[in-house]
């Protein structure tokens, strides 16, 4: 199983998360590309840290929304969205090369991630952008979403992910952050849930029903309170149960 986290999101004097600590725990790092968060110097520092720790790097592409942290819905024209995603991947590729590593996958962020999980037009735009840059890149997508099938139909390698710190609806979708109980904070509870996921392929929904989730990676949001402790507890719990932890992309 892979453990990933969203990193490189600090911006100037605004600090987001603890990248150095998280890089000691995760196997993959979704690194911001400057559209929703991150400045070039900070992104480069995170990439160097990933290279030193042997953590695989992915481009965390987003809508151009620094003020809203990429969590506001947008409806860009296709030519704009394709160009925006190409631009972000390319920028991260350059910084990654300077840091002694390379971009191996793409994981959309926030509102873009949630939109393309269901919106075929925007999903196809993101797929087109990835294929234009490097068809060998892997797409990290929401487990069970239509996006997985759309991307595979066009020849992209796709890995599915589950979210450690988010609650699920009965249909396997994520509970909206606007609703109570959407974000989980108890590290021990989260670790037990992730072990259950790995062992059974299921998680309890917010209503208590069993939901089938086929995931290749577990995400811990780097900006969540207690994110490092949560990732550490997941890592220890899975390792202690004999689960091999390794990046999904090589």
UniProtKB/TrEMBL annotation:
Primary gene name: pxpA
Keywords: ATP-binding, Hydrolase, Nucleotide-binding
Similarity comment text for this entry: Belongs to the LamB/PxpA family.
Name the record gives this protein: 5-oxoprolinase subunit A
Organism name: Comamonas nitrativorans
EC number assigned by the record: 3.5.2.9
Nucleotide-binding listed as a keyword: yes
PANTHER family with a match to the protein in the record: 5-OXOPROLINASE SUBUNIT A, UNCHARACTERIZED PROTEIN YBGL-RELATED
SUPFAM superfamilies linked: Glycoside hydrolase/deacetylase
Function per UniProt: Catalyzes the cleavage of 5-oxoproline to form L-glutamate coupled to the hydrolysis of ATP to ADP and inorganic phosphate.
Enzyme class, spelled out: hydrolase
Subunit-structure text: Forms a complex composed of PxpA, PxpB and PxpC.
Catalytically driven reaction(s): 5-oxo-L-proline + ATP + 2 H2O = L-glutamate + ADP + phosphate + H(+)
Entry-linked Gene3D superfamilies: Glycoside hydrolase/deacetylase
Pfam families recorded: LamB_YcsF
HAMAP family documented for this protein: PxpA
């Amino acid at each position: 199983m892979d453990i990933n986290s969203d990193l490189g999101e600090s911006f100037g004097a605004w600090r987001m998360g603890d990248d150095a600590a998280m890089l000691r725990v995760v196997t993959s790092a979704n690194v911001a590309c400057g559209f929703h968060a991150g400045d070039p110097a900070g992104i480069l520092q995170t990439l160097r840290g990933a290279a030193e720790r042997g953590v695989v790097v992915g481009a965390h592409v987003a809508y151009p929304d620094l003020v809203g942290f990429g969590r506001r819905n947008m409806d860009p024209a296709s030519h704009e969205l394709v160009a925006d995603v190409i631009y972000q991947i390319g920028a991260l590729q350059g910084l990654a090369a300077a840091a002694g590593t390379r971009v191996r996958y793409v994981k959309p962020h926030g509102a873009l991630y949630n939109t393309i999980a269901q919106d075929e037009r925007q999903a196809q735009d993101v797929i087109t952008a990835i294929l234009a840059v490097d068809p060998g890149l892997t797409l990290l997508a929401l487990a069970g979403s239509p996006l997985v099938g759309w991307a595979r139909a066009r020849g992209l390698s796709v890995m599915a992910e589950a979210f450690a710190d988010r609650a699920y609806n009965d249909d396997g979708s994520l509970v909206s952050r606007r609703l109570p109980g959407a974000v989980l904070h108890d590290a021990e509870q989260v670790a037990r849930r992730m072990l259950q996921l790995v062992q059974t392929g299921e998680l309890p929904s917010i209503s208590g029903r069993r939901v089938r989730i086929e995931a290749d990676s577990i995400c811990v949001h780097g900006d969540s309170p207690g994110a490092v402790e949560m990732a550490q507890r997941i890592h220890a719990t899975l390792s202690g149960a004999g689960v091999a932890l390794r990046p999904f992309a090589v």
